[in-house]
Amino acid sequence: MASAQPAAPAAPAGPAGAVVAADWPRFEVAWRLIDERYWDLSLSEIDWRDARVLYGERLVASDDALDEILEAMYEAIGDDHTRYVPAARVIEERERFGDLPCIGYFGVSQAAATARAADDVPSDTRRIGPVLLGSWDDGVGYVGISDLVQAGVAEGVRRAVAELERGGASALVLDLRGNPGGRLVTMMQVAGVFTRGFLWRALTRWSLPLPYPALGTPATELPLAVLVDGAVNSAAEGLAGALQTQGRAVIVGATTAGNVEAVLPFCLRDGAQAWIATGVLAPLNGPTWEGRGVTPDVPVDPATAASVARATLLGR
After folding, report:
1. Pairing mode, strands 131-135 and 126-128
2. Which of 206, 146, 216 is nearest to 181 (CA)?
3. Alpha helices in the chain (DSSP H)
4. Is 155 exposed, middle or buried, given 0-12, 13-18 or 19+ CB atoms closer than 10 A?
5. In terms of domains, do 147 and 19 share one?
6. Are 63 and 116 contained in the same domain?
7. Do residues 241 and 115 share a domain?
8. 170 assigned to some structural domain
9. Is the per-residue pLDDT at 97 higher than 90?
10. Any idea what the CATH number is for the domain that residue 120 is in?
11. How far apart are CA 149 and CA 11, in angstroms?
């Protein structure tokens, strides 16, 4: 249920009043979206009713543009996901983070997202689109994913797995270290390369839990290890956690970030979008990974996770 709405600040009289009166409905819509859809306002860094008064007064008393005020109000929530996107930047956001449905991965360093740990990745590593693949001399195949945002990630994983299996791989290592997450649909598609069935649910305060399945036909049954570290966020955590919960993969490395808020963009009348953490990802049965992360089956320094994973897969 939405929280009770406090009285709105009155629009001033005079010339400025006409501007505020025109802007106030847009302000109200943006505020109510959070009030009605945000997954847990008790975790916000600001009381949302106070935010309505505080930023409403800023709209009345200052010359700041409405977009600037709404961006600041959403930022005050403090969850690194939820944000207001002015209409002029919507196309840019779609190009960066993809179309619906999606899980945002914001406030995460792109350097961390693309960096591979200092580890013995295969010397023959190459790319299929945005996906890395290679193999070690012991017959274990390697697939690396730097994010779940770029076009072609899921297809690249599927092609890489097929090529490695044709080449005689006896097991696979999926490297998610540093992966900041990305789109929900990409998470579901990559999971579908390795397994099938309903693997996740989204927990919200405004609807029943929403179940999500792996998408596609599994391409391999080879033993699988997934490498993780503390920079793994969002949809990448959901991918690792689901494969672990189902017993499809052994997770090797360090506990992930615990940042699995599910983000949806709401389209506003003026063309702007409000990206809101409407819920959190969780396994189909069991508690969410939000705030606790995915705990590895084999906890090790992420810099040595690949060699440990290979030894684990080969029974050494």
Report:
1. antiparallel
2. 146
3. 15-37, 48-61, 66-75, 90-97, 110-114, 153-166, 184-194, 234-245, 305-313
4. middle
5. no
6. no
7. yes
8. yes
9. no
10. 3.90.226.10
11. 42
Q: Which pair of tokens denotes residue 30?
A: 């943006």
Answer yes or no: do 156 and 261 share one domain.
Answer: yes
Q: What is the pLDDT of residue 38?
A: 80
Same domain, 145 and 230: yes
pLDDT in tens, 147-161: 888 889 999 999 999
Q: pLDDT digits over 40-59, tens only?
A: 788 888 999 999 999 988 98
Task: Give the pTM.
Answer: 0.66
Residue 166 to residue 65: CA distance in whole angstroms:
58
Rounded to an integer, the average pLDDT of 7-30 is: 59
Look up residue 107 and give its two tokens.
Answer: 């406030």
Number of domains in the chain: 2
d(CA 215, CA 226): 19
What are the tens digits of pLDDT across the range 221-233?
Answer: 999 999 999 999 9
* Amino acid making up residue 64: D
Please give the radius of gyration of the chain, using alpha carbons only, rounded to the nearest integer: 22
Q: DSSP readout, 280-299?
A: EEEESSS--STTT-PPPSEE
Flag whether 186 is in a domain: yes
Contact yes or no for 219/167 (Cβ under 8 A): no
Domain extent for 280:
110-313
